[in-house]
Structure formats: structure tokens, C-alpha cells
Amino acid sequence: MISKPIEKALQQQIALEAYSSSVYLSMACWADVEGFEGTAAFFYKQSDEERMHMLKLVHFINDNDGHAQIAKQDAPPRNWKDIHSLFREVLEQEQKVTQSIHELVNLSLKEKDHASHNFLQWYVNEQMEEEKQIKTILNKLKILGNDGSGLYLLDRELGERAAMADPEGEA
After folding, report:
1. Domain ranges for the chain
2. What is the value of pTM for the model shown?
């Protein structure tokens, strides 16, 4: 059975994951309109992943005698100055999620909730991977600057990553 403080904190994490999903969907739309098709595919995939993260939390709460709730959320941003600012915002969003996960882990230890602590380890590892991936992209963008041909190649690489992550090719 899940404790009330853990359930409340997990509810907040559900809201954060849902918001991340909508931010990435909005980023995908921006990238599509700006001609970054590979980047758009990457963010459509990221949006789906964040939704999956949210659903894992929903199921965990419900499976442990809680009742998951889906909160109302603010509309995500719609426009970015350029692809550099887009990915800087992604890193900030991921760091915010990482901080929230760490706070959840700390709470699970304080509450002596070993099941929640064990469950949250997947999120700890996932966030390390997410941040590393975005930092790598930002490093490449730093090297490229505003070089059109370089940005084209990076966009293509991001599209290939999205396609590889989607076995049905529906990136």
C-alpha cells in the first residue's frame, strides 16, 4: 500500500511528465514547421516516451491501492528563437524532471517505502540517459554554430535516431 505523502508526490510527477510530453509535442510541431523534419520526428518520439513515463506512474499508484489523478496543465510554449534555444530548453526541462525524481527517491527513503524506492530507480537511470543524450546534442550544436549543412546533417541524424527507436517506422 502506498503512503499518502508518496502518492501525493507521485501525482505531482504525473503532472510533470504530462507537461513534458506536451512541451515535446509542441517542439515537434515547431520543428516540423521550421523544416527540421528529423528533429520533429525525434520530438514526436520524445513526447510519446514522456507519456509512457506518466502511464508507468499512473499504473504504479493504482496497483498499490492509490488512485492516480490527471491534473489540468498549462499550455506549453509554441515558438523558439532557433534550434539552439529549443535544445537548451529541453535540457532545462530534463533537469527539472531529474530534480523531481531525486526528491521522490529521498521521500521514499524517508517514508521507508521500499517498493516506491525500487520503482523509482528506473526513473533515475532514465533521467541520466535523457540528460546525457541532450547534452550530446547541445555539444554538437555548439560545434556547428549556425552552419546550414551541419544542422542539416544533425537533423538527419535525429530523424534516424527516432526511426531506430520506432520498430514500426512510424517516427
Report:
1. 4-165
2. 0.92
Nearest alpha-carbon partner for 68 in 121, 109, 17: 17
CATH topology of domain 4-165: Ferritin (1.20.1260)
Query: In angstroms, rounded to a whole number, what is the distance separating the alpha carbons of residues 148 and 153?
Result: 9
| Side chain identity at residue 151, one-letter code | L
For 79, phi then psi, to 5°, come to: -135, 150
In angstroms, the CA 9 to CA 15 distance is 10
Gap between the Cα atoms of 19 and 96, Å rounded: 12
Average predicted confidence (pLDDT) for the chain: 94
Query: What is the C-alpha to C-alpha distance for residues 159 and 171, in angstroms, rounded to an integer?
Result: 8
Report which residue type is found at 33: V
Residue (of 143, 46, 55, 38) closest to 94 by Cα position: 46
Per-residue pLDDT tens for 81-100? Answer: 999 999 999 999 999 999 99
Between CA 29 and CA 5 the distance in angstroms is 37
Distance separating alpha carbons of residues 15 and 88, to the nearest angstrom:
22
φ, ψ for residue 158 (rounded to 5)? -65, -35
